């Protein structure tokens, strides 16, 4: 069979049969759309192409067989006990059951009240702040705020000033409400492009841009802030350091941060926290410690609601309560394969 004939026959083949042919021959075939799969099969060695030609003919004649024709008896499934570990099939993802909405969202709710006990990493971060700067890089929802609040409490108890920065005005406003509730509204002020309230409070919330500008002014001698009493600078959402446009603001804030104040960087998504810690160690006189872990206290439940109304979990769920990131659920693999041609097409048109 010529390559052109093979291509035509493969293209006419239903996707399911095409994937059967690709099993064991094309790696990650389940992620491919039909067009890419055909091209990958055509790139196989001449021997493999001959093999798939023969298999395809067998498949087609089997599917063309009339329903009434008696089917050969199905072979019994192999006895698992007789299989060596080498030949035992790995997890058969196609058998994984679809997940219902209830199962996916199971366990979401308000936990029953329990006494608060700080996690070891939270205590470690607070402890390190007594001797130097700290980067806390832990997953979202882990409790970074506790570290910030505890560090603030300690700083203001010794008459130091605290500056807490966030990348957004809206987040700064939320933090004002939260911290005023904890420390009393007289102890918390805010400075953003839109607002200037209680600017002499011991705890000041501001956007990182405002702090950078204050530090610029201080560097040029126009000192107005109580930078000499500044004991703690907290940069929340510090992954903005990597932002192509705004990252420079975080960078300069760290560079100009007064030597006597401690820096606390909080983030759930710094890709290279150890490199950032090494850089801060280089440019500042105090040591910088990294507190880093990847354990999610709040499980990640990622799902896609297909326009047909079907809920497709992204991650494998069998034997894992809420799925495990990086192990795609078979339904998600099928979904990606279904839309791959369209998405690749869109990308190549750009
Ligand atoms: N040690 C702990 N034990 C139990 N719950 C905790 C603990 N520390 C914090 N929490 C609770 O965890 C929840 C999430 O905390 P927090 O908002 O500080 O997370 P975060 O790490 O700042 O998340 P994000 O990355 O979304 O900003 C809060 O309700 C908080 O009260
Ligand atoms: Mg937070």
Which short descriptors sum up this protein?
two-stranded antiparallel sheet, Rossmann fold, disordered C terminus, eight-stranded mixed beta sheet, binds adenosine-5'-triphosphate, binds magnesium ion, alpha/beta, 3 domains
CATH architecture of the largest domain: 3-Layer(aba) Sandwich
**Fourth-level CATH superfamily of the largest domain:** P-loop containing nucleotide triphosphate hydrolases
- Name the overall outline: elongated
What is the SS-derived class?
Answer: alpha/beta
Proportion of residues in β-strands: 5-15%
Radius of gyration: 29 Å
Q: Could you list the spans in which at least 5 consecutive residues all have pLDDT below 50? A: 67-93, 345-350
Distance between the termini: 37 Å
CATH fold name of the largest domain: Rossmann fold
Biggest sheet features? 8 strands, mixed
Number of domains: 3
What's the tally of helices? 12
Bound molecules: adenosine-5'-triphosphate, magnesium ion
Number of strands: 12
Q: Using the coordinates above, name the CATH class of the largest domain.
A: Alpha Beta
List the topology elements.
Blueprint: H1 3-12, H2 15-22, H3 34-42, H4 46-64, H5 101-104, H6 120-128, E1 133-137, H7 144-157, E2 161-166, H8 169-183, E3 188-191, E4 196-197, E5 203-207, H9 208-219, E6 230-235, H10 247-256, E7 262-267, H11 273-283, E8 288-292, E9 303-305, E10 311-313, E11 315-316, E12 324-328, H12 330-349
Parallel strand pairs: 1-7, 1-8, 2-5, 2-6, 3-5, 6-7
Antiparallel strand pairs: 3-4, 9-10, 11-12
Helix pairs in contact: 1-3, 2-3, 6-7, 9-10
The protein binds adenosine-5'-triphosphate and magnesium ion (MG).
The site of magnesium ion has 2 residues, from helix 7.
């Amino acid at each position: 069979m010529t390559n052109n004939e093979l291509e035509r026959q493969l293209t006419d083949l239903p996707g399911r049969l095409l994937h059967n042919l690709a099993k064991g021959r094309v790696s990650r075939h389940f992620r491919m759309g039909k067009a890419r799969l055909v091209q990958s099969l055509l790139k196989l060695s001449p021997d493999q192409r001959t093999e798939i030609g023969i298999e395809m003919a067998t498949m087609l004649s089997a599917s063309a067989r009339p329903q009434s024709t008696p089917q050969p008896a199905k072979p019994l499934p192999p006895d698992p006990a007789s299989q060596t570990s080498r030949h035992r099939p790995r997890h058969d993802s196609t058998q994984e059951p679809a997940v219902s909405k209830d199962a996916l969202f199971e366990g979401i709710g308000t936990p029953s009240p329990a006494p608060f006990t700080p996690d070891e990493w939270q205590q470690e971060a607070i402890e390190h702040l007594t001797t130097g700067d700290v980067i806390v890089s832990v997953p979202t929802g882990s409790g970074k705020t506790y570290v910030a609040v505890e560090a603030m409490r300690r700083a203001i108890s010794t008459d130091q000033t605290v500056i807490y920065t966030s990348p957004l005005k809206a987040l700064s406003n939320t933090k004002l409400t939260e911290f005023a509730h904890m420390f009393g509204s007289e102890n918390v002020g805010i400075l953003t492009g839109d607002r200037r309230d209680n600017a002499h409070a011991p705890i000041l919330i501001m956007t990182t841009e405002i702090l950078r500008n204050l530090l610029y002014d201080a560097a040029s001698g126009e000192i107005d802030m109580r930078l000499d009493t500044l004991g703690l600078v907290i940069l929340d959402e510090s992954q903005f350091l990597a932002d192509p446009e705004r990252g420079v603001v975080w960078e300069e804030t760290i560079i100009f941060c007064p030597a006597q104040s401690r820096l606390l960087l909080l983030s759930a998504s710094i890709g290279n926290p150890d490199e950032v810690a090494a850089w801060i160690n280089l440019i500042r006189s105090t040591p910088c410690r990294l507190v880093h872990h990847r354990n999610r206290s709040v499980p990640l439940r990622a799902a896609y609601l297909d326009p047909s109304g079907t809920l497709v979990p992204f991650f494998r769920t069998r034997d894992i309560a809420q799925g495990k990131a990086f192990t795609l659920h078979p339904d998600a693999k099928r979904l990606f394969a279904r839309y791959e041609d369209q998405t690749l097409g869109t990308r190549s048109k750009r």
